[in-house]
Amino acid sequence: MTLIEKADQLAERAHTGQTRKDAPTPYIEHPRAVAAILKDAGFDETVVAAALVHDVVEDTPVTLKDVRQELGDEVARLVAPVTHDSTLSWRDKKLAYIEAVRTAPPEAKAIALADKIHNAESLLNAHAAQGQRVWGYFNASREDKLWFEEAMLEMLRTSWRHPLIERYGALVERLRALN
User: Fold this and answer.
1) Any idea where the domains of the chain sit in the sequence?
2) What distance in Å separates the CA atoms of residue 54 and residue 3, rounded to the nearest whole number?
3) What class has domain 3-177?
């Protein structure tokens, strides 16, 4: 079994029964979409595998130690900086995440970026279908959510260079234009 297959199996097990906030779709579709963005952008199997499990430590009982045991040190090294610290308040958690990604290796930046791209695309699609109601799915106001997206974009633009950043920038512009 390949590293990507192992990661997909771990993610599928960990996210069983979970759904996305904005639609009644299985949560596993999100990490698979993030992984696909990175695969299409030419990232290697370690990055794609880490993308598949990027939310397991944050959103399931799976620990970073579990990730390391099942998928290796490198995957765990990439998952660690893209995992939010849920012990913090919303804003402090987002500030800590931005700093962790800013100082992370480029491969972890790529995972965070692909995650933000897919989340923004999902939000835009949900808004088109459901209107303003989508803002109620988050633990923050529309203004706070937009602040975070803009802060992430600025951090990525000043700390790394990759064509996916401009894709994210265009999505943030579209989010900003939503009423």
Assistant:
1) 3-177
2) 14
3) mainly alpha
The gap from C-alpha 120 to its chain's centroid, in whole angstroms, comes to 10
* 58 in catalytic set: yes
Question: What is the rounded distance in angstroms from the CA atom of residue 35 to the CA atom of residue 47?
Answer: 8
Q: Is the pTM of this model over 0.85?
A: yes
Phi first, then psi, for residue 6 (nearest 5°) are -60, -45
- The catalytic residue among 12, 29, 45, 58 is 58
- Set 29, 59, 70, 74: catalytic member: 59
Which residue matches tokens 């930046």?
Answer: 109
The alpha-helical segments, DSSP class H, found in the chain are 3-14, 29-40, 45-52, 56-59, 64-71, 73-79, 90-102, 106-130, 142-159, 163-177
DSSP 8-class letter at 66: H
- 93-147: pLDDT as tens digits: 999 999 999 999 999 999 999 999 999 999 999 999 999 999 988 889 999 999 9
